Amino acid sequence: RPPHCSLFRGSTALYSKQWYQRRVREAVVSTQSTGAMESINSRLALVMKSGKFTIGYRSTLKSIRQGKSKLIIIANNTPALRKSEIEYYCMLAKVGVHHYSGNNIDLGTACGKYFRVGALCITDPGDSDIIRSMPTSAE
């Protein structure tokens, strides 16, 4: 056994003490920055319950072209070409775009789905005030 594997004396730890300390620091930093994200997630959950929406890149583009969309939410790991295409369509249609701070797995979880969601189009917010609360939405 290499000497750097176990910094806990007398135990066979798989990870070093520094690794655990780094993970704790990252967890503290991430919980401090989730205030706005939780607000968006709760508003998204309300839209999923009471509003109308479409999930996915192709259906998002279709609803923008038809003029039905009110707000577009894009995950942060959406490919750059797709992201710029959606933004261009939204600019032409005067629709607000929100760049979700999590990746497509996080966005899918926030929508209450068990799959990844790269783009989400809200056509009717229902009881949620998500469109008024987004700073990037067009007036």
Structural class of the helix and strand makeup?
alpha+beta
How would you spell out the order of helices and strands? HHEHEHEHEH
Q: N- to C-terminal separation?
A: 64 Å
- Gyration radius, rounded: 20 Å
Strand adjacency order, main sheet: 1-4-2-3
Strand residues, percent: 5-15%
Most strands sheet: 4 strands, mixed
Calculate the mean pLDDT score and round it.
Answer: 83
How many H/I helices?
Answer: 6
Give the low-confidence spans: none
Anisotropy-based shape: globular
What would the keywords be for this entry?
139 residues; four-stranded mixed sheet; alpha+beta; single chain; 6 helices
Notes on the structure:
The protein has six helices and four strands. With 139 residues, the chain is α+β, with helices and mostly antiparallel strands. The protein has a four-stranded mixed beta sheet with strand order 1-4-2-3, with helices on both faces. Helix 3 packs parallel to helix 4. The radius of gyration is 20 Å and the shape is globular. 22% of the residues are buried.
How would you concisely characterize the structure shown here?
This protein is an alpha+beta fold and 139 residues long. 48% of the residues lie in helices and 13% in strands. The chain has a four-stranded mixed beta sheet with strand order 1-4-2-3, sandwiched between helices.
